[in-house]
Amino acid sequence: MASDSSEWDEDLPPDPEEDYQTFIRTLERTEGFRLLFVQCTPAEGKQLIARVKDDLPQKTIEVLCLDKPIENLYEIVEQLPNREQVNILFIQGLEHSFYEYEQVKFGNIYEGDFYSWKGVPRILNHLNQHRERFRDTFKICFVFLLRPFSLKYFIHRAPDFFDWRSSVFEFPTTPEILEQESSRILIEGDYQEYLNLTPEERIKKVLDIQELLAENHQTPSSKTSLLLELGNLLVAGKEYEAAIASYDQALKFKPDLHQAWNNRGNALRNLGRLEEAIASFDQALKIKPDYHQAWYNRGYALRNLGRLEEAIASYDQALKIKPDYHQAWNNRGYALRNLGRLEEAIASFDQALTIKPDYHQAWDRRGNALSELRRYEEAIASYDQALTIKPDYHYSWKSRGYALYNLTRYEEAIASFDKGLKITPDDYEAWNNRGYLLLKRDSYEGVVTVYDKALEIGSNRKVHNNQTCTRYDLERYEEALSSFDKALEIKPDFELTWANRSFVLYYLGHYKEASVSCNKAQELKHDDYVAWSNKGFILMNLERYEEALTSFNKVLEIQPSHHSAWYNKACCYALQGNVEQAIENLQRAINLNPEKYREMAKTDSDFDSIREDERFQLLIQEPLPSN
């Protein structure tokens, strides 16, 4: 419909042919510079150009098709080889310069209200600023073929240029083109391809569908299919709320559309609305009980809720319908592993791998189950399979590092964590573990060895006090400190790293900083026994024995069987000359770990003041073998 000053009856529907004839007369009479705007779809625009060329053979008509964003239209027109002869220049594709500014109002899928206030596209600034140059230089009638949202950009963001228009024409999409374009969208629809779209490409596709939905001649059946496709496209772009709205619209047209119920459930699950997701999957299964994807997705949501037995039952239903459903075997194994049913989990992963031998996630999860069974060599072999298939799978590098650590192959474990950190440098747990292993590893000539799990300093302080650290040791500690600091850059509230950091600061002789690190760990997690243990050890080194004893007592409140804390309490009491308490606490430590603490007490100078006590001598003696 042309927006000239002519009057028309509001009750009469527009006549496309009458509008076209008005458009042709306007072009035929135009000599020199003029601006016309035509609202139409890209497909309708191509047909319009072909028809104009047939109807106006006396005019020299050129078409400028833009397939990427531009910033300067003047230069492009100026460089046209036959510019002086051109009477009419159709310009298509200017919307490519708007996509990056577009913030689609996904809820208004029928109104076509897509204009964004995000900013002014550079091309429109250019047109506003150079309209006089266009008028003075080019004796051309410019015809801008625009999609509905593009026209709104001109109205609101290029008012100076747009005000020079002669007319705005609107050509509705014909039923034939509408059907063709709708079918094309549905045929080309591919969720995997949607996942790889750039934001601008995704917005273009969303607008394609929304504009088709807004057409008056669209059939309910086509609307239903397009709404389902739009929902899938939005899910791929993680626009879950908008996707749910699209699926809901589709279900208004067709309440028994099982795919919409299923896909709606996936969007709800991704929003963490798991109970609603399960209800949506249940609706899909009421309509189609043999819908294996819905059983699988239902199991996934149940697993996320921690309802693992129900999740396994859902996976089993999916596998009854589709026995070669490798994803269901894999996730079933994951649920079994979380229930502690490790052998069954491995069998489930093996089923997945029989069906799909290059399924790297199944190899990785199989390795995790084997690690929990302490079958570390087999676990490493499983991780290696995953990494052969997908060398950048950082989860396997990390888990492999844990398995190597448990085999005391510390250098290889560090190398494995390093591989993972090259892929995901923001993995704070891997940085923490790397720092831990740098200290766990024996130093040059075995001067320092960390005995206790999770960098509990325990009773190993004499190594630092009585030995001279080599340069190698210092470099190792500095490297470990750097790893812990990197972890805290990424996650400042990771209490285990603060506790571990206190350990390395202690060994570097930075006792005050070490104490601050312990305090930080305790602020974040008051019942962190590692931090309390480390703090007690630091205070003990500073000869603040009463405070140290308070810290070790806190450890024992949290972990009553913490043998290192009992031993360190015995050391504190011995250094204070409290023989009774020293003997009692040493007895508790030896009861928990006889070989370790009986041997350590024999040479520990903390006990020099009570070494000649008969009770001490009895404690450190090896028990006689029984007859």
Structure description:
With 627 residues, the protein is mainly alpha-helical. Helices cover 64% and strands 4% of the residues. It contains 33 helices and five strands. The chain has helices at residues 16-29, 42-55, 73-78, 122-129, 131-137, 148-157, 159-162, 175-188, 191-195, 199-213, 220-236, 240-253, 258-270, 274-287, 292-304, 308-321, 326-338, 342-355, 360-372, 376-389, 394-406, 410-423, 428-440, 461-466, 471-490, 495-507, 511-524, 529-541, 545-558, 563-576, 579-592, 594-603, 614-620; strands spanning 34-39, 61-65, 88-92, 141-146, 167-170. Strands 2-3-4-1-5 form a five-stranded parallel sheet. Helix 3 links the parallel strand 2 and strand 3. The longest helix is centred in the C-terminal third of the chain and has 20 residues, at 471-490. The protein starts with 15 loop residues before the first helix and ends in a 7-residue tail after the last helix. Residues 1-12, 104-117 and 442-472 have low confidence and may be disordered.
Mind sketching the topology for me?
Layout: H1 16-29, E1 34-39, H2 42-55, E2 61-65, H3 73-78, E3 88-92, H4 122-129, H5 131-137, E4 141-146, H6 148-157, H7 159-162, E5 167-170, H8 175-188, H9 191-195, H10 199-213, H11 220-236, H12 240-253, H13 258-270, H14 274-287, H15 292-304, H16 308-321, H17 326-338, H18 342-355, H19 360-372, H20 376-389, H21 394-406, H22 410-423, H23 428-440, H24 461-466, H25 471-490, H26 495-507, H27 511-524, H28 529-541, H29 545-558, H30 563-576, H31 579-592, H32 594-603, H33 614-620
Parallel strand pairs: 1-4, 1-5, 2-3, 3-4
